[in-house]
Amino acid sequence: MTTQVFTLPLSAPLSANATPTLLPTQAVGARNKEVWAVVPAAALSWHSVTLPTGLKQKNRLLPVLQSLLEEHLLDEPEAMHLAIQPQWQESSQIWVAVCQKEWLRAHLNDLQNRGQRIHRIVPEWSPLPANANPSAQAWVSGVPEDAWLWVSTAQGAWRLPLQAGIQLWSEQLNAAQAKDHNFIDTLKGLTIQAEPAVADLAQKSLQALQSMVSGAASESLNSWRIAVTPAAERYAQAAATDWDLAQFEFAAHGSARWRQSLQRAWQQLAYARAWRPVRWSLAILVAVQCLGLNAAAWQLNAKVKAQKELQKNILTQTFPNVPVVDASLQMSRELERLQRQAGSLSGKDLETVLQAIGMALPEGQSINSLDFQSQGAGEIRLQGLQLSNEQQTQFISALRSQGYDAQVNAGQWRIVSNVNNLNNLNNASNRRGA
User: What domain range includes position 397?
Assistant: First the structure.
């Protein structure tokens, strides 16, 4: 499963024979066969703005951003496409990415005409979010004749030609060290990424930077290193930032955006190294729950087995000549047989059922019709009762206390003896008599 990534050229239209970069779907947190557009870093400018207090609705955001950036843009804000950082509601100080609106629309329309529906627009390079660790990032791009340095720190983000960028960065590091001697410690072990074409030049520039920084900071800079980063790896890193420039008029359908966000969150949870402790914790929790359920089921089965064995023992001790098949049912039948032989009434006989109904019915009630079936559990059907909801509840409760279940449907009552309840009542009566 792969994701197609098209890099949008700065000036000329995308070549008709342009071959997209293929990234593993799981690695970048996409759905299978998604199509992404990568906006080159040189096509974007980055601005840090402070949103007004209480602004949380995205439909009011665009006019506010255009007003805040009006003095910082070389063109009219309406001619620029603006995109805000992920989770922008969590902070009043946010990053805003800006690019030419017509340039972006032309490339997206071109891809649309080729049958490529863009699911996400990813910036090739983006500044660090607030409170990021490490507190700085750097990238060297271009070719030896035209190399550029990109730097993002807590103080801001900027791009300059490589030599001028090294000079400016050294001045910033020296100034920061003068204000806070511990500042440089936050940058220990920093990795500066570099495109393969300028890797050697980046290494020489790092050595120059180390020589231009004085004091304890120079020792920290000795731990910095250059990492050669191919384009595919940079795109995967860009995808991991959750930045998506498909906002406002370039945004996809709401449900599609929601599904894409959910898919990326799931992919990060399932495969990202940072979420590995969570995955292990969930696996252990599920395993413990399964063991607990199996233990509870084993205990329940043991109790059921013990109860059946007790019923079997009672039947064999009371009626030793009866072969055991279903102890509970056989015990009920044998008791009924003994009652008939002794001439006593059982709970399923008509007289007993009518007596229970008479005790449970409120005064002033009469029955129009009665149908009694002695087969099975003993069932009687009644019609003509005029009971309120409260009286119906009391009637059902009174019958249940005597070992009978009652149901009403369209004015007809169906009353059936509950064998288990009757046996319990009979046993309790026998114990009191004893």
Answer: 345-433
